[in-house]
Amino acid sequence: MGNWVVNHWFSVLFLATWLGLNVFLFVHAFLSYEKADKYYYTREILGSALAWARASARCLNFNSMLILFPVCRNLLSFLRGTCSFCRCTLRKQLDHNLTFHKLVAYMICLHTAIHIIAHLFNFEHYSRSQQATDGSLASILSTLSHQEKGEGSWLNPIQSPNMTVEYVTFTSIAGLTGVIITIALVLMVTSAMEFIQRSYFEVFWYTHHIFIIYFIGLGIHGTGGIVRGQTEESLNESHPHRCAESFKHWDDHDSHCKHPQFEGLPTESWKWILVPGVLYIFERILRFYRSQQKVVITKVVMHPSKVLELQMNKRGFSMEVGQYIFVNCPSISYLEWHPFTLTSAPEEDFFSIHIRAAGDWTENVIRAFERQQSQIPRIEVDGPFGTVSEDVFQYEVAVLVGAGIGVTPFASILKSIWYKFQHADHNLKTQTIYFYWICRETGAFAWFNDLLASLEREMEELGKVDFLNYRLFLTGWDSNIAGHAALNFDKATDILTGLKQKTSFGRPMWDNEFSTIANAHPRSVVGVFLCGPQTLAKSLSKRCHQYSSLDPRKVQFYFNKENF
Amino acid sequence: MGQIEWAMWANEQALASGLILIMGGIVATAGQFTKWYFGVYSIGAGVFVCLLEYPRGKRRKGSTMERCGQKYMTKVLKLFGPLTRNYYIRAFLHLGLSVPAGFLLATILGTACLAIASSIYLLAAVRGEQWIPIEPKPKERPQVGATIKQPPSNPPPRPPAEARKKPSEEEAAGAVGVSGGPQENPVPVIDEVV
């Protein structure tokens, strides 16, 4: 429990603040519309539905303001950069931007639902009071527009008994923009469902740009002044507390009360979304500018199993371990940007990515480079983004677990650790590394194999064989492979990978691993880093709690799960 | 955009539209709005659409994540054969279902969303997509007994003595440093522990 709090306190605080602000804004707006005298007559027709609609509108404005910030990745990078003295947890929080973006989106959906339902009731009440012939205050108020010509000090937007709510909806600015932006919201949400986004990225990417319609519509939405309250002047003259009872005698010669005058509520949405809108425009301009800078491809390597490695250079590019970049290939698709983890170490004089064939765009890129034309396709790069694991270098003993494609950031980390070690970098506190690589079959990661092999060789040369201990676990084995391995048990190198460490089959037995490490390093602080599935994260974090000694001077395991 | 299966997105959109129809219908009916009977229709149509769209179809490439508990509706949908398989039928069905809900403000959003889903389904149908049910995987575990073959009737051919050393015995021999055991070592064993 203590570990969880240490790792997550910032997230919890942040989310609690956000929820708290939402609740505060909702309640504040609700009470103000429910109690204010200005809306006394409006409430006479609409009841509480007015307050519900306005309160949810306030929250919608707030969340629409927030939703653009998490996707301004250049801004976030800048913030992260200036916060170099901040604690690690703050920087990790900035990486959870997409999670926050989705949470805010769900909140927007919730408040949209409340807002629409409340306004449906509002329109229905307006319609009923327009058609009522019982001479009640509500029906008098609804006929107000007939009294005043010209500017129209009306309250009820439904001006005649024959006007249907549907007609008013589609002929008023608020109604029409409301319908349009809600449809835009629904489309954005359905195309962003995890399943669709993972499998058909292009559908998600292009549809999500409807947010432009959403924001423009939101800005225009309140300009019609359809929510009306009594004017200041009219309140002074004929305050509802005095005059509401005598509504039958308004404007009579001997009455003090005149007909109330109404004005539309000024639109406030634009005030909320102006700043994030401008920031986001800057962000896109910045992304465009950065992408225009020349990227020089220094080396192209085709690895087995259709993996393409690109080594590149770009002026002013500097990276840290485990970061990722967005890559665009204009000859394949002008508008698509795809994220890739950097596989090179910061100490190298180039940066590289490994592209695996996993969809339309990646397959096209690989094919384009395979053709080996004299003119290689141009690449645009935006980034680097994200930050991980400078924490990796801070632990005396590091346990790194990479599952499947999650092994990619560890390429960068391992190379960097090795460089730091060779140059006796003081920032490197790591003395021992345990690396666990779990995958179905090594095919697409043969390049990582080669990396491990070369690290193995270099360590042997330096005589530091126990610096890096790695185990490879193949979960996609069958009896043939196992039999083959058993027969070649006494060979010095593994038959599958050619590495000195033998391949194990199946999944690691974490209890064994953790207890071995705890025994080997009884007084160390061990950092456990995972890039892989959630189930594995749960399993590892449970073991971290289990095997951490109660005595703070003895072995402690800290679990870090990063969203690479 | 070659590999996109539009039906998958249409499915999500239609499911969302069904929920919106149900919500709008409940609001209209509970609030007894004018023409609230359209609200009742909308609830019914929404429930029908949700049930129809709940089971996700199988993707042509790659694995498909099932929705929780969808196998019951999958069985029902399979019974209707081509009616549920064909996306043209679904497209026109959704278009037809959405029209009556368009007469009531509370449900008009559902109409719009369902109409959009219908047009995406039409696109899917034009590209030849079909709804394929996700079948449960046959639960076949290899019986332990079945993998054990008949015991051999002849003794195995024996390789020469040197090659017959097993790894475990090699270790034991190395550790102990004694050439004991069932075989004779033609070469004297020297303990080379450093």
UniProtKB/TrEMBL annotation, chain A:
<dbReference type="InterPro" id="IPR039261">
    <property type="entry name" value="FNR_nucleotide-bd"/>
</dbReference>
<dbReference type="InterPro" id="IPR013121">
    <property type="entry name" value="Fe_red_NAD-bd_6"/>
</dbReference>
<keyword id="KW-0408">Iron</keyword>
<dbReference type="Pfam" id="PF01794">
    <property type="entry name" value="Ferric_reduct"/>
</dbReference>
<keyword id="KW-0407">Ion channel</keyword>
<comment type="subunit">
    <text>Component of the phagocyte NADPH oxidase core complex/cytochrome b558 complex, composed of CYBB (heavy chain (beta)) and CYBA (light chain (alpha)). Component of the phagocyte NADPH oxidase complex composed of an obligatory core heterodimer formed by the membrane proteins CYBA and CYBB and the cytosolic regulatory subunits NCF1/p47-phox, NCF2/p67-phox, NCF4/p40-phox and the small GTPase RAC1 or RAC2. Interacts with NCF1 (phosphorylated form). Interacts with NCF2; the interaction is enhanced in the presence of GBP7. Interacts with RAC2. Interacts with RAC1.</text>
</comment>
<keyword id="KW-0249">Electron transport</keyword>
<keyword id="KW-0274">FAD</keyword>
<keyword id="KW-0349">Heme</keyword>
<keyword id="KW-0521">NADP</keyword>
<dbReference type="GO" id="GO:0016175">
    <property type="term" value="F:superoxide-generating NAD(P)H oxidase activity"/>
</dbReference>
<dbReference type="InterPro" id="IPR013112">
    <property type="entry name" value="FAD-bd_8"/>
</dbReference>
<dbReference type="Pfam" id="PF08030">
    <property type="entry name" value="NAD_binding_6"/>
</dbReference>
<dbReference type="Pfam" id="PF08022">
    <property type="entry name" value="FAD_binding_8"/>
</dbReference>
<keyword id="KW-0325">Glycoprotein</keyword>
<feature type="transmembrane region" description="Helical">
    <location>
        <begin position="203"/>
        <end position="227"/>
    </location>
</feature>
<dbReference type="GO" id="GO:0043020">
    <property type="term" value="C:NADPH oxidase complex"/>
</dbReference>
<feature type="transmembrane region" description="Helical">
    <location>
        <begin position="12"/>
        <end position="33"/>
    </location>
</feature>
<keyword id="KW-0285">Flavoprotein</keyword>
<keyword id="KW-0406">Ion transport</keyword>
<feature type="transmembrane region" description="Helical">
    <location>
        <begin position="167"/>
        <end position="191"/>
    </location>
</feature>
<keyword id="KW-0479">Metal-binding</keyword>
From TrEMBL, chain B:
<keyword id="KW-0521">NADP</keyword>
<comment type="function">
    <text>Subunit of NADPH oxidase complexes that is required for the NADPH oxidase activity that generates, in various cell types, superoxide from molecular oxygen utilizing NADPH as an electron donor. Subunit of the phagocyte NADPH oxidase complex that mediates the transfer of electrons from cytosolic NADPH to O2 to produce the superoxide anion (O2(-)). In the activated complex, electrons are first transferred from NADPH to flavin adenine dinucleotide (FAD) and subsequently transferred via two heme molecules to molecular oxygen, producing superoxide through an outer-sphere reaction.</text>
</comment>
<feature type="transmembrane region" description="Helical">
    <location>
        <begin position="36"/>
        <end position="55"/>
    </location>
</feature>
<protein>
    <recommendedName>
        <fullName>Cytochrome b-245 light chain</fullName>
    </recommendedName>
</protein>
<feature type="transmembrane region" description="Helical">
    <location>
        <begin position="12"/>
        <end position="30"/>
    </location>
</feature>
<comment type="subunit">
    <text>Component of the phagocyte NADPH oxidase core complex/cytochrome b558 complex, composed of CYBB (heavy chain (beta)) and CYBA (light chain (alpha)). Component of the phagocyte NADPH oxidase complex composed of an obligatory core heterodimer formed by the membrane proteins CYBA and CYBB and the cytosolic regulatory subunits NCF1/p47-phox, NCF2/p67-phox, NCF4/p40-phox and the small GTPase RAC1 or RAC2. Interacts with NCF1 (via SH3 domain). Interacts with SH3PXD2A. Interacts with DUOX1, DUOX2 and TPO. Interacts with NOX4; this interaction mediates superoxide generation.</text>
</comment>
<keyword id="KW-0479">Metal-binding</keyword>
<dbReference type="InterPro" id="IPR007732">
    <property type="entry name" value="Cyt_b558_asu"/>
</dbReference>
<keyword id="KW-0349">Heme</keyword>
<keyword id="KW-0472">Membrane</keyword>
<dbReference type="GO" id="GO:0046872">
    <property type="term" value="F:metal ion binding"/>
</dbReference>
<dbReference type="GO" id="GO:0016491">
    <property type="term" value="F:oxidoreductase activity"/>
</dbReference>
<feature type="transmembrane region" description="Helical">
    <location>
        <begin position="103"/>
        <end position="124"/>
    </location>
</feature>
<dbReference type="GO" id="GO:0043020">
    <property type="term" value="C:NADPH oxidase complex"/>
</dbReference>
<dbReference type="GO" id="GO:0020037">
    <property type="term" value="F:heme binding"/>
</dbReference>
<keyword id="KW-1133">Transmembrane helix</keyword>
<dbReference type="Pfam" id="PF05038">
    <property type="entry name" value="Cytochrom_B558a"/>
</dbReference>
<keyword id="KW-0560">Oxidoreductase</keyword>
<comment type="similarity">
    <text>Belongs to the p22phox family.</text>
</comment>
<keyword id="KW-0812">Transmembrane</keyword>
<keyword id="KW-1003">Cell membrane</keyword>
<keyword id="KW-0813">Transport</keyword>
